[in-house]
From TrEMBL, chain A:
SUPFAM superfamilies: MetI-like. Residues 95-284 form the ABC transmembrane type-1 domain. InterPro entries: BP-dependent_transpt_permease, MetI-like, MetI-like_sf. Keywords: Cell membrane, Membrane, Transmembrane, Transmembrane helix, Transport. Belongs to the binding-protein-dependent transport system permease family. Residues 1-12 have a biased composition (Pro residues). This is ABC transporter permease. It comes from Streptomyces fragilis. PROSITE patterns: ABC_TM1. The chain crosses the membrane at residues 99-122, 134-152, 216-241, 261-284. It is a multi-pass membrane protein.
UniProtKB/TrEMBL annotation, chain B:
SUPFAM superfamilies: MetI-like (SSF161098). The chain crosses the membrane at residues 105-125, 137-160, 172-194, 232-256, 276-299. It comes from the Bacteria. It is found in: Cell membrane. This is ABC transporter permease. Keywords: Cell membrane, Membrane, Transmembrane, Transmembrane helix, Transport. It comes from Streptomyces fragilis. It holds the Pfam family BPD_transp_1_N.
Amino acid sequence: MTSPPSLPPAPAPRSVRRPRRGATARTAALPPPTVLLSALVLTLFLAAAFAPGLFATAGATDTDPLHTLQAPGSAHWFGTDQLGRDVFSRVVHGTRHSLAIGAAATGAGAALAVVWGLAAALSGRLGDALLMRTADALLALPGLLLALLVMLVTGKGVTGATIAVAVGTAPGLAQVVRTQALVVRRSGYVEAAVGLGVPRPLVVLRHVLPNTLGPLLVLATVTLGASISTGAALSYLGLGAQPPTPEWGAMLTEGQGFLEQAWWIALFPGLMLVATVLTVTVLGRWAQDRTERRAAS
Amino acid sequence: MILLRRVGARLGAALLVVWGAATCAFLVLQLVPGDPVHAVVGSNALVSAEQREEIRHHYGLDRPLPVQYLAYLGRLLGGDLGDSYQLQQPVAQALAQQLRPTVELAVGATLVAAVLALAVTVATSGRAHWPRRLSGAVELVLVSTPSFWLGIVLLTFFSFRLGWLPVSDAGGVASLVLPVLTLALPIAAVLVQVMREGLLDALRGPFVLTARARGLTEPAVRSRHALRHAALPALTLAGWFTGTLLGGAVVVENVFARPGIGRITLQAVSGRDLPLVQGVVTLSAVVFVAVSALVELLAAAVDPRLRPATGVPAA
């Protein structure tokens, strides 16, 4: 019943059991090239999200009836769609929408998980059982199905999709917070604080909470890729962002109708999505690897 | 006796999960805004107060909530999932009709993913580093690829460019190839990552040295001794795997316009067909429990240490 959350599990950190030969102090200090490359790409994506004007050559919804369904070329790098909109510019403008759903959902999910996990760890046996069995039951459902279930309550749209993805990520993260809180609760400094007569809420806020955040942050980074992906999936299924919003998942739905004449409309938004999830996954696994290595040493 | 108790305990735990999922679904659906009557007759239809009462009575919506809940659980025990709001048929019947295409898809994807993962794991666990590097990069990209886009890319290339395979469901095996691949490739990538780690670990074990010292050939060492150890960590992913299959079915069936449980689920959510949604949730909980049990049996077959004690004390 301790099923992992619906993200691809990271392989066990290689370095814990098998120190790589020839790893000098210099290579240990500098992150591997894939991580540096990912960080660079992610920086570019963040720049595109906050200032799309840096890259985009046209507005997200600027139509051009004379140049519809143009193949990629020097005038339009990623071609144009059925309304003559520049696909490259739409993809750039879409960065903001796609990243926002994933990031907001992960943030909200992590916040919910903190409350959920801490409440379970600090309440009595009955409360703990009730809260964690609820998490188990929710984890038994496929992540996407849980998201669809939540969308019934919230309704369609970007806000609904964000809440749905957040609720989907919370149970898995809550389990981590609870486990960590149980460990921290028995540690010397918490006992010392309690012994000194620090009020209980203050102990939780000042000592237990900060020490559960590390593992949560790492796992949330790994989850972020899956959250962006699920958010885009909801939009692709017509439940999240709606056309003409240049959200990547919604763009894929639009482009799927033109696969025969204009493959580029659906290709590039998906490529950006893969690149985003890939960079976030690489960075997340690297952070996970590092913390586990530090814990092992 | 011990075996009987174990079976009983498993069955109890399984029922608890299904009950929990069904209860969660029931509670969540109580929060759905809007009048269910609209979902039954459509929001534009004019309904007299009398007809409205009749519809509410038919679905038991006029009774107090605890009574509705108990009635729902009671019907569930008998395998009755209630009546769909929109399909004019019982939910169980609707699901049964859509089960076949989804089972074909899921079983196909499982087999392809397992075979692919085994082959790639064995092929890339040799002494040379570059196959592992290459495969690692491909795995990472596949794990990061959302299935709806993977489906679209396969569709563009194999159906529209090359014309090898049908564009949408035409029945027959050919129209199953791309959906199965779309679902299987990301799963295979995750399995390879986990299994190779296990295999490389196992190959460093003392029993491998013993086997080699006994003069066993390299293929024999790998297939008879090391591979078992690689399979075990993969089997612990059962929960993730089931979720990916069912969630993936929703996406893949929509990409390829195939009929099935995933398609009907999306329809039910879009149309607010609450009994149908409840039915899908319950069904997926049952599948989750069944797959978990199956995987436990499989793990016991792979690893003798996990087999239940027979009651005969070891000498």
